[in-house]
């Protein structure tokens, strides 16, 4: 038996999976996993999303494999978990799936976020993976002063927030799933090309180049945003995977379990297969990740 786990990253090629892959199998130095498989809807040859200059070199590593798969199709998911001949099963799963477009309607969010995570989560539970890490982006209505802690009941923001949050309740309700949730602040860092923080950094750099004070709609300190570097997200995902792999879901719930409170339309939820009932108490280990300001 290898002392290093085999890992799969699902989704997130346009968000954080490239940084996670670089952390798990760096260009220089010892890899943290024996084998890494990355699964997403995009192609990489030719690329149909931004890859940056580093990620294509990581894909050339002998222990790294990329698969283009439509994860909206439930019948396509089981094969993603099948290891290569002579290789040990995949024991770590990093779920970075989900639609990050704020303009999607309920039906598209259900199909692209909720259903995809459900297909992957159910198969991961069936395979008895040791760690299933779900990355949750900050699609919430956060308070203006100070960060929210893990125990606070924060309201999802809009359609995207509603279904990303509902996805957490669904995953928390899957039996035998060694789930741990990592809820992040706004991400920034190398090769990150989306989100408000990137725009602010670009605008600030422009004002700096012009040697002029940066002007905004609000005074400095108004509506502050908590951020987190993408490399910290990658490190945290691997850390929580090691943590839950060592103790299991039951003990993880007792140590860091938090209730994922219902925030949805009960009538709309009735037509969604696999959704946790509104009255169900859904609990899962959950950690916030941000840079303290």
From TrEMBL:
InterPro entries reported for this sequence: NAD(P)-bd_dom_sf (IPR036291)
Domain of life of the native organism: Eukaryota
Protein name (Swiss-Prot/TrEMBL): NAD-dependent epimerase/dehydratase domain-containing protein
